[in-house]
Write a structure and sequence with these properties.
The chain is mainly α. The chain has 3 helices and no strands.
């Protein structure tokens, strides 16, 4: 895997990890942000998955 694909893959996983933390602390986030907390989680997951898929498509591993 080339360096660019590797960094994109790792960055996507990092964002998904942050999304997991948001999901674990959703009750506290919901109390502070309201429905924006759910929007934040959806956006983080979408960006993380798209980065991972982008790295897979570039390397031809699919």
């Amino acid at each position: 895997m080339p360096e660019q694909n590797s960094s994109t893959f790792l960055f996507g996983n990092l964002i998904l990890g942050i999304a997991l933390l948001c999901l674990l602390f959703m009750e506290a986030l919901w109390a502070r942000l309201g429905s924006l907390a759910m929007v934040l989680w959806v956006v983080l997951v979408a960006v993380g998955v798209s980065l991972i898929m982008k790295s897979m498509n570039q390397s031809g591993d699919l």
